[in-house]
Amino acid sequence: MPKKKVDIQTVKTDINAIADLMGSVLEDNQVPRNIRGAVDEAKRAILSATDDVALSRAIYLLDDVSNDINLPSHSRTDLWTIISELESLKEKLG
Question: What is the 3-state secondary structure (H, E, C) of 45-90?
Answer without folding.
Answer: HHHCCCCHHHHHHHHHHHHHHCCCCCCCHHHHHHHHHHHHHHHHHH
